[in-house]
Amino acid sequence: MPPLPVSYYGALFKNMFTVECSIEFLEEMRTHMSLQVLEKDNQKQFDLTPFVNQHVYFIRSKTSMNHIYRVLRQMGIRTLYVVDDERHLLGIITRKDVVRYKL
């Protein structure tokens, strides 16, 4: 079965998440929801340490796409940070970016 065209997904997405309501209704809901938040809920914290990447890989802005592709594949990483000569962050390049370029 062939995949559905992108236009189909766009229409489906709109139908799933479009809601008709007034501004007054939204304000009333916001007030109601904020009243339900307890003070202790504002104090909760999550330890995100297990999810933090301790190893940051970066490349210079003049690096070729072929080299970037090889680094991503060999290192098994999904993102590389692009920096200038002073190591200031210029952007992030992902596997998807490289694949789009290769096509």
Automatic annotation (TrEMBL):
Domain CBS: 48-103
Keywords: CBS domain, Chloride, Ion transport, Repeat, Transport
TM annotation in the entry: none
SUPFAM superfamilies: CBS-domain pair (SSF54631)
GO molecular function terms noted in the UniProt entry: chloride transmembrane transporter activity
Transcription regulation among keywords: no
Coiled-coil stretches noted in the UniProt entry, renumbered to this chain: none
Signal peptide positions on this chain: none
PANTHER family to which the protein is assigned, alphabetical: CHLORIDE CHANNEL PROTEIN CLC FAMILY MEMBER
Name of the molecule in the record: H(+)/Cl(-) exchange transporter 7
Lineage, uppermost ranks: Eukaryota, Metazoa, Ecdysozoa, Arthropoda, Hexapoda
